[in-house]
Design brief:
Length: 400
């Protein structure tokens, strides 16, 4: 039976104050922005300048849950398509190479490296001898396990032991469903099938893909590990290192415990889970919104300007968002990007850092800043491409 999904309901948080683009509207600290208004220190994570150093995405923090280490991808190749997965000690700067000769699709998400098991292990994917592998490495011992092949890894949670899997989006084949991988045991189980998704939304699939083979792509688990959202992909003939590799549409939210679809929207945007595992932050019309995945209600604030190119991430307490944005509409030139922290509730926002982002790794798909908070919310990590090397930067709130 087809599932009918409601039209989005909008809850506009209209405020009496006015807010200039890119300028905090008042000095009030009620919105949680005080720590980001003054005294923020911004610097590269690594002292090394002759290499790329890239964090994976805005859906996962490169900082370990206990705050002691960072995980990043490092490469000396001009296009960054081959490199190393490394762990960096935050107190000493010592770098430990976990894996070398790692082959990735692009510099955009690199190896999708991420913490699991509370920071004891790292999971990533790697192209080995022509086959995609999902790999786990114990950080202390360096012991490596290839957990599965023929698949790539989506985004889990750093404290968890489960990561979602998907098959090659550019060539739907054997692995077309959403699977869950238990990192401890290596067990793989099917969570939701592409056929069940098509059965739930047949008209949408028919309009978007006709009879073309499709697969579930890019799953992201909620903080409580009970829900997941994903999109749908169909081959476009370009292979995995091509902007024409696949056609990708929609955002589908599924409850893993109740085994039912919760929410669907035809456009993916740039979604990220809120800490409450119920709402999804996204960018609609270049503006941040929060979507209740149970009701479809959308929270937006008309006081916020458009942030072109934005990827949103929420602070651990859910009070603040951080986005990257092109800066032309805020007085910058065409090559400049910026990191902005703001409050969806109040509409206030501050510019943390501006930088040239026109250079960096010469991958077919460019590196975006993809800002994300640290687990304690006091640091923001983002990629900068202001020179020949794309580098991971950190913005630090001043000490209290």
């Amino acid at each position: 039976m087809a599932i009918r999904y409601p039209k989005a309901k909008f809850l506009l948080l209209c405020l009496s104050m006015s807010c200039g683009a890119g300028v905090a509207a008042s000095a009030s600290g009620a919105d949680g922005l005080d720590g980001w208004r003054n005294g923020v220190k911004v610097s590269p994570v690594l002292d090394q300048t002759e290499c790329h150093s890239v964090h994976s995405y805005f859906n996962t923090s490169p900082e370990s849950p206990d705050g002691t280490r960072l995980i990043l991808y490092r490469s000396t190749a001009a296009n960054a398509h081959e490199g190393e997965v490394c762990v960096v000690d935050r107190s000493t700067g010592t770098i430990k190479v976990l894996a070398s000769n790692v082959v990735v699709e692009d510099v955009h998400r690199v190896a999708c490296q991420q913490w699991v098991l509370g920071g004891r292990s790292v999971v990533f994917h790697d192209l080995r001898d022509g086959e995609w592998c999902v790999v786990e490495i114990d950080v202390e011992s360096g012991k490596e396990r290839v957990l599965t092949t023929g698949r790539q890894v989506g985004w889990g949670q750093a404290e968890g032991d489960i990561v979602p899997l998907y098959g090659p989006h550019w060539e739907p084949g054997e692995h077309r469903d959403l699977e869950l991988l238990n990192v401890r045991t290596g067990e793989v189980s099917t969570a939701v099938t592409i056929d069940a998704t098509k059965e739930a939304y047949p008209d949408w699939f028919s309009r978007q893909f006709s009879d073309s083979p499709t697969s579930i792509f890019f799953p992201i688990l909620s903080p409580d590990m009970k829900r997941v959202f994903f999109k749908i992909a169909s081959a476009a003939g370009g292979g995995f290192r091509s902007s024409a590799g696949s056609r990708r549409y929609g955002v589908f939210c599924y409850d893993l415990d109740e085994k039912r679809f919760l929410y669907m929207h035809g456009k993916w945007g740039h979604p990220a889970w809120a800490p409450d595992s119920r709402r999804i932050a996204n960018i609609w019309g270049s503006r941040p919104v929060l979507i209740d995945c149970e009701t479809g209600t959308v929270e937006a604030n008309r006081e916020l300007p458009a942030f072109p190119g934005a990827h949103p991430a929420l602070s651990p307490d859910g009070q603040l968002f951080v986005v990257d944005t092109r800066s032309e509409s805020f007085g910058g030139d065409k090559n400049e990007w910026a990191i902005v922290v703001g409050s969806l509730k109040s509409g206030e926002h501050v510019f943390v850092h501006r930088f040239d982002n026109s250079q960096g790794a010469r991958s077919w798909r460019k590196a975006h800043p993809h800002p994300v908070f640290s687990p304690d919310g006091r640091r923001i990590y983002f990629n900068v491409s202001s020179g020949p090397w794309t580098q991971l930067y950190v913005a630090r709130m001043p000490l209290r």
